[in-house]
Amino acid sequence: MTTATTATTATARPAARTPRTARPRIEGDWLLVPVPQTHRPVRLFCFPHAGGDATAYTPLARALAPAAEVWALRPPARGGRSRHPMPPDFDSLVAAVAEALTPHLAGAADGRFAFYGQSFGALLAYEVARALPADRRPELLVAAGAPCPAEWAGRTSKDLDAAELLRLNGLEEVVRAEPDLAELALGAIRTDLAVSATYRHRPHAPIGSAIHALAGADDLLATTGLTGWAAHTRGTFGHRVVPGGHLLATVDLPGPVDLLTALLADRHASAPFHHTPREH
Questions:
Q1: Which residues of 138-236 form beta strands (DSSP E)?
Q2: Which contiguous run of DSSP H or E holds residue 237?
Q3: Exposure of 273 by Cβ count < 10 A (0-12 exposed, 13-18 middle, 19+ buried)?
Q4: Nearest Cα residue to 71 out of 58, 83, 84, 82
Q5: Are strands 68-73 and 210-216 parallel, antiparallel or unpaired?
Q6: Judging by beta carbons within 10 Å of its beta carbon (0-12, 13-18, 19+), is residue 63 exposed, middle or buried?
Q7: First vs last Cα of the chain: how many Å apart?
Q8: Could you state, in chain order, the average pLDDT of each consecutive group of 10 residues for the chain (280 residues)?
Q9: CA nearest 254: which of 55, 98, 102?
Q10: pTM of this prediction?
């Protein structure tokens, strides 16, 4: 009798619902959370390349969940912020981004967060990290497809126009059939190149964040001096060449997911990212 009642009750139970994927969320003007996570994992703040938008990191956000939650930067003068003016120079851009990020740096589990930037975004990510108070900096900064700050003035792309950079970024084919889209993309690249041209590296003490420098094996803009980033950290340092071109993460490609997952998982209770410290 009891067994029969139990079986009937179990059969009558509704099937468990599959959790719905949370919708993308915009935080203020500057940040997009493409795939929000409810369990507050480590946050990975992602900085787009010149001309890029936050949506470029949607595939990466999907691929990293649930291990990490991507918060992608929404630069002005493009996409949903087309009417928002770009700050007049690089220093002003750094200050604006640092101010926008600060309220969100402690929201992840254990307050853990990291930065990922590619090309122009790598330089911006580093300078934003440096602008933050020493105790509010990311535990890790991953710089992809970019020379180190000290070498930025001599970068290969400084003499390229927007159209050539679009081609080398591998985006020319994407926008070729859409003239309006092409003009928007070129306009965003020109805007970022103008800001980039105002960057001036100033000698300073290395930051404590771990730094990992990447280059795509097929990157036509890649520098051979990835190790130059080592001088900009007093923490741990790593570098490697990975499959891909100049842009590793795009609207069609998630980027170096396995590497980022491993780096974000490599932590110690008292010393996140406990790789063997580099020698000074």
A1: 140-144, 210-216
A2: strand 237-242
A3: buried
A4: 58
A5: unpaired
A6: buried
A7: 77
A8: 39 43 90 95 95 93 96 94 95 98 83 94 97 95 94 57 58 57 75 91 94 91 80 96 91 94 72 38
A9: 55
A10: 0.83
State the helix-helix crossing angle for 179-196 and 90-101, rounded to 10 degrees.
100
Q: HSE-up of 202 (CA within 13 Å, CB side)?
A: 8
Give helix 120-131 / helix 90-101 axis angle, nearest 10°.
60
Q: Which amino acid is at 195?
A: V
Please state, in angstroms and rounded to a whole number, the distance separating the CA atoms of residues 30 and 42: 19
State the number of CA atoms in the 13 A half-sphere of 123 facing the CB: 25
Two tokens, residue 224? 């051979």
Amino acid code (one letter) for 36 = P
- What number of H helices and E strands is found in the chain? 8, 8
Please pick, among 92, 119, 196, 209, the residue that the annotation labels catalytic: 119
**Neighbouring C-beta atoms of residue 185, cutoff 10 Å:** 23
SS3 state at 239 = strand
What pLDDT, on a 0 to 100 scale, did the predictor assign at position 278? 40
Contact 24, 54 (CB under 8 A): no
For tokens 């940040």, name the residue: 31
Residue 110 identity (one-letter amino acid): D
- Residues 98-127 as b/e (b if ≥16 CB within 10 A, e otherwise) read bebbeebbeebeeebbbbbbbbbbbbbbbb
Catalytic residue list contains 92: no
> Which DSSP category does 160 fall into?
-
Q: Which pairing describes strands 31-33 and 25-27: parallel, antiparallel, or unpaired?
A: antiparallel
By residue count, the chain amounts to: 280
Q: Are 140 and 150 contacting, i.e. CB atoms less than 8 angstroms apart?
A: no
CA-wise closest residue to 193 among 155, 229, 226, 220 = 155
